[in-house]
């Protein structure tokens, strides 16, 4: 049977960012240095394939530090942790390695600096997301007010409207955040923003690439996990930029082929914690069913690299 022609349009950049790459390397190097098992507090990055692969190598994933024994190393995930977590690990004399993405750490430092200057923080982020919990946990209770939407801005009651600063989760929608920032500045004209945008380069670049391909395709597939904030934002960006069918898929076996009936062009991208192997798996699944032409739309080049902590570069 003759295969139907189909154009696959690959967004670039896509997939792993430098922070995710570093976090995975940290777990692998820790296993190599100290042997298995290594404990990891929370999923190192939000991707089941990655987590399962590290589990096979000897990583044990837990949600709280109390689930870890004192005599085995523990790694804190790329999303960051509240200050109380490393403090407790130090008290228990545990070996611990912080895999927090350096761009998340930048937001933590920013929050602490503003707090030291007597400012109360407003954080734009998603309630319950590990990064938001970690960032809010850098300061004492009540020092960070969380807003998720423009509507939330009207509801917060800071102790002094003249002494405020704002920070944002690094994986938000750039467009949505612009509206929330505008609402904050409108209500609190004296509010201080970051020196440099908190939303990380990788989130911004992947969203820009999706904006470039969305009007050109009949459907967009975002490869990523349901609990990955940056992946879910890519789905939203696709939908709001002219793509009628924008869906998140974990891997090839989750593709709804019936929904793609009649599509002439399908866009493919991947969240910052989705490995290239899953992207290739999806491309191969299309090649098995269609006569595929692959085009790439590249909107930025990335050459960022973050060093792993010194403790892992030293001999055991």
SSE layout and pairings?
Elements: E1 4-12, H1 18-34, E2 38-41, H2 48-57, E3 59-62, E4 74-76, H3 84-91, E5 96-98, H4 102-116, E6 120-124, H5 130-136, E7 144-147, H6 150-153, E8 164-168, H7 174-187, H8 201-213, E9 219-223, H9 229-240, E10 245-249, E11 265-270, H10 276-289, E12 290-298, H11 310-313
Parallel strand pairs: 1-11, 1-12, 2-3, 2-4, 4-5, 6-7, 6-8, 9-10, 9-11
Helix pairs in contact: 8-9
In words, what does this structure look like?
It contains eleven helices and twelve strands. α3 (84-91) links the parallel β4 (74-76) and β5 (96-98). The mean pLDDT is 96. 37% of the residues lie in helices and 20% in strands. It starts with a strand and ends with a helix. It has helices at residues 18-34, 48-57, 84-91, 102-116, 130-136, 150-153, 174-187, 201-213, 229-240, 276-289, 310-313; strands spanning 4-12, 38-41, 59-62, 74-76, 96-98, 120-124, 144-147, 164-168, 219-223, 245-249, 265-270, 290-298. α8 packs parallel to α9 (229-240). The chain is α/β, with parallel strands linked by helices. The protein folds into three domains: 4-16 and 201-298, 3-Layer(aba) Sandwich (Cobalt-precorrin-4 Transmethylase, domain 1); 18-101, Rossmann fold (3-Layer(aba) Sandwich); 103-187, Cobalt-precorrin-4 Transmethylase, domain 1. The strands form three sheets. The chain has a five-stranded parallel β-sheet with strand order 10-9-11-1-12, sandwiched between helices.
